[in-house]
């Protein structure tokens, strides 16, 4: 089993499919998972000449606890 398959069991599948885990921290019993959108042009824009222009402001989502620890997902979407 790949690490990605395990993550799909614990987190929403689309999150693992379209984002990379770039960092994680355990701070005082709070698990922080950091995601950045993959550098893949969406299908609906594939005919356009797009370049990534960095990221939008990070959003934070409170998720269900894992192994008794509160979880926060920090998500950064690409700016095209």
Automatic annotation (TrEMBL):
Organism: Epilithonimonas bovis DSM 19482
Protein name as it appears in the record: Transposase
